Amino acid sequence: MSEMQTVAASAQKQLNPEEAAELALTEAKNLGCSDVSVVAFDSSESQVRFSNNNVTLVNNVRNIALEVYLSKDKKRILGGTFNPNPEGIKKFVNNLFASCQILPPSESYAPLPEGPFHYEGRGNYDQKIEDAPLTDYVKQAIDASLTAGAERVSGSLNAESTQIFIRTSAGASARDLYSSILLNARAFASDEASGHGLSCTSFLSDFRPEKSGASAGEFAKKSLYPKTLPEGTYNVIFSPTVVANIFPIASSASAFAIESGISFLVDRLEQRIGVQTLALEDQGVYKGGLGGRIFDDEGVATGSTEIVGDGTFRRMLHNATTAKKFDSKTTGNAGIIQPRPNTIVFGEGDIGLDEMIKETRNGLYVTNNWYTRYQNIRTGDYSTVPRDAAFRIEEGEIVEPIAGIRVSDSIPRQLDNIEFISSSREWIKWWEVDTPTYAPSMMVKGVHVTKAVGS
C-alpha cells in the first residue's frame, strides 16, 4: 500500500467512542492545553412516527459525538463534532485550539476538578430496548386509543441506547450507559377534541404503550363539544406533564442562571420560595427512573442535591467555575459553561388525583400544555396555552370540557399558592421537557386564566 493510500485509510478508520475521547485528549495536551475535558457519546436511536392511525416513518441512526473543552492561559472554549475519524479529530481539536487562542482570558476561569473520582453504579439502562419491537408498540397504542373513543391518533415513539465516556486532563476517566423509550400519542375524537398520552422509561418492563394510547383516547372522547370559559382566577389542577413544564425550578437554580439574572431565584438562597410541602431534588441517577449519569462534564461524580426543602431554596447547582465564584463546592452538575440538572425529582404529596378533584370543588383540570413563554424571566411571569383535554370542575366533579384558554401567571405566586400535591408521580420527558422529571399533579389556588388569541 502506498503512503497516500495509508493516509487515506487512516482518515476513514472508525474509532469507538473511548478511542476517540483518548485521541482528542492526547491531541489537546500535545498542544499545551492546561485543562481538557472530552465527553464521547455513542448513541443508537430509533424513531417511529405515526399519523392518522398509520405508521409513516421508521428511522434508525447511530451517532458518535464528541464534546471537547479546552483551556490555556485562562482562555476557554467548548465545541462539538459528530462521527469523527482520527484525522477529523485532530483537525477539529487543532481548529478549536486556534479559536481558543484568539479569545481573551476568562475572568471566571477555574481549573478542572482533580481526579480520579469514585463512581457508583451506572445510569438507568436496559439492553432490551435496543431490540424492542417499536412498530408493534405503536400499533398497540393506536388500537388502545381507538378502542377508548378516538377517531385518529398521531405521535412518535423514540428509543435510545447510549454509551458515554469521559477523559479529562485532571485524571477523570469513566464509562456509563443509559437508555430510554418514549411514546407520545395524541388522539382526536374530533378536530376540537384531543387528548395526550405519554409513557417514558429506561426499562422495557415499565413501558406501557397501551395505557398511554388508552389515556389519550379517553381524554379525547371526554373533550368532545368543549365550552368557553369566562376570564378570571381559578383553582387549577395541573397534571404531571404540565407541572414538569411550568415549574422550571431546577434549571432556575443553576448558579449561571442566577448570576446572569435570568432566574426568579436571584437573591432567594435560604429563603422560602413556596409552600412548606414543596420539595425538589436533583439526582445524578434515580434508581429505576429515567436516564441519568454517574458523572458530569467535568468528571465529577453526580449525586443527590436538595434544591428545595420545606419550601425553602436550599442550594444552587454548581460546576467548578460557579462554585469558585460563589465560594461553594461543585454539585456535580457541569455543564462546563452552565450548570444544569441531571434528573429532577419533585417530592410527593399525600392525596390522590380523584380526591384532589373532589377537594378542588370549583376549578379547572389541565392535562397538557404548550407554547410556554416568559414575559419576564427574572420575575417568573409567564403564559402557557392548555393543549388537549382541559375540564371545568364543579362541586368536586368534572362537569364539562373547556377550550380556548391561556394561563397567565407568575411562578413565585403559584409556588406560594400550591394547595395539594399528589401522592403519585410520573416520569415526564418530551420536547416540552428536556430533562427527565419525576413530577406529581398539583392544585394551585387563584391561577389567572385568560382567553387564548383567536378564541
How does this structure look, described?
With 455 residues, this protein is an alpha+beta fold. The protein has two domains: 3-220, PmbA/TldD fold, CATH 3.30.2290.10; 226-455, no CATH class. The chain has eleven helices and 19 strands. Helix 2 crosses helix 3 and helix 4 (134-148) packs parallel to helix 5 (209-222). The longest helix is centred in the N-terminal third of the chain and has 16 residues, at 86-101.
Q: What attributes characterize this protein structure?
A:
single chain; 455 residues; alpha+beta; PmbA/TldD fold; 2 domains; 13-stranded mixed β-sheet; 39% strand; disordered N terminus
Please sum up the structure shown.
The chain has eleven helices and 19 strands. With 455 residues, the chain is an alpha+beta fold.
Give the helices and strands as they follow along the chain: HHEEEHHEEEHEHHHEEEHEHEEEEEEHEE
SS-based structural class? alpha+beta
Number of strands: 19
- Percent range for β-strand residues: 35-45%
Radius of gyration: 24 Å
Terminal CA distance: 72 Å
Mean pLDDT: 95
